């Protein structure tokens, strides 16, 4: 499916500063960047950085003097995914996990899976199939955590979200990741552009490693799973920040959008009658 994605950001730069952005759609076997355009006004030379491990695309540039900086990104993206039957989505034993997956088993800054071990296992530990476990904990989050804008901040963790039972997409994703890891299921943070998200914004959800595949889950249920354009994945939001700033810089405006280019679109959500997980290859 083809989507037009866009992001606009404005920064009030008070002094010479360096900004690292993470708003570019990744390139992968499942996601082709057909065309894109990125501008900085006023112009500053920027460089694209791609980690040795991973697909995330970062753009780094230096603002040499105080000014108002406007950033504009837009791209045409072609995505693909596959639906995988439930019986193929069982847990992979830790002894069989590829080394690149192992970091997604451990607690991280916002996903304290060690603190949620008893909670996760008492509620979901008896479910045999790993896909069903993740689906159950995702539904539990949706039913028990209120989506409440402005209820959390950049310091809120998965443990806080369980306690306060309120949050935004970032918090829902962190809690899903932490519960998966507490159940010995690798899980990672997913951030991207999202079609039909209302209001339009950057969106966060998570992927669980099941049957050798990264399967997408969204505990907010605010947007169709097949309407995502991936920007980045990581252990949690600390690895996938939209912007990392070094200097005295204030963000004064931010927006994101995702529009369907093709006319036909059938929203995909998980159905217990036809249990299939969705994977962006």
What attributes characterize this protein structure?
281 residues; alpha+beta; Immunoglobulin-like; C8orf32 fold; 2 domains; four-stranded antiparallel sheet
Rg for CA atoms: 19 Å
Residue windows where pLDDT falls under 50 for at least 5 positions: none
Number of helices: 4
**SS-based structural class?**
alpha+beta
Spatial shape = globular
- SSE order, one letter for each helix or strand: EEEEEEEHHEHEHEEEEEEE
Average pLDDT metric? 94
Number of strands: 16
The top-level CATH class of the largest domain is Alpha Beta
Provide the β-strand percentage band: 35-45%
Sheet with most strands: strand arrangement: 3-6-1-15
- Distance between the terminal alpha carbons, to the nearest Å? 14 Å
Structure description:
The chain has two domains: 93 residues, Immunoglobulin-like, CATH 2.60.40.2250; 165 residues, C8orf32 fold (Roll), CATH 3.10.620.30. Helix 1 packs across helix 4 and helix 3 packs across helix 4. The protein has 281 residues and is of the alpha+beta class. Strand 11 and strand 12 form a beta hairpin. Helices cover 16% and strands 38% of the residues. It has a four-stranded antiparallel sheet, with no helix packed on it. A four-stranded antiparallel sheet has the order 4-5-2-14, with no helix packed on it. A four-stranded antiparallel sheet has the order 12-11-10-13, covered by helices on one side.
């Amino acid at each position: 499916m083809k989507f037009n994605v866009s992001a606009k950001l404005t920064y009030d730069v008070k002094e010479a500063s360096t900004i690292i952005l993470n708003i570019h759609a990744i390139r992968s076997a499942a996601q082709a960047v057909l065309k894109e355009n990125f501008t900085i006004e006023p112009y500053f030379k920027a460089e694209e950085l791609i980690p040795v491990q991973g697909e995330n695309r970062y753009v780094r540039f230096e603002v040499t003097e105080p000014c108002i900086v406007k950033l504009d990104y837009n791209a045409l993206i072609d995505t693909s995914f596959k639906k995988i039957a439930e019986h193929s989505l069982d847990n992979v034993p830790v002894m069989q996990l590829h080394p690149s997956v192992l970091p997604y088993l451990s607690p991280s800054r916002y996903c304290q899976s060690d603190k949620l071990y008893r909670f996760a296992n008492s509620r979901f530990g008896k479910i045999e199939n790993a896909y069903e476990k993740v689906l159950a904990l995702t539904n539990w989050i949706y039913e028990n955590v209120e989506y409440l804008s402005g209820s959390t901040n950049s310091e809120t963790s998965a443990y806080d979200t369980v306690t306060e039972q309120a949050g935004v997409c970032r918090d829902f994703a962190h809690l899903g990741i932490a519960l998966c890891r507490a159940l010995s299921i690798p899980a990672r943070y997913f951030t991207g552009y999202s079609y039909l998200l209302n209001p339009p914004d950057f969106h966060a959800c998570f992927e669980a490693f099941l049957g050798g595949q990264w399967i997408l889950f969204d505990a907010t249920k605010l947007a169709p799973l097949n309407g995502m354009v991936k920007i980045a994945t990581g252990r949690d939001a600390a690895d996938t920040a939209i912007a990392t700033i070094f200097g005295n810089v204030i963000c004064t405006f931010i927006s994101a959008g995702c529009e369907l280019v093709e006319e036909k679109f059938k929203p995909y959500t998980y159905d217990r009658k036809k249990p299939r997980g969705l994977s962006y290859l």
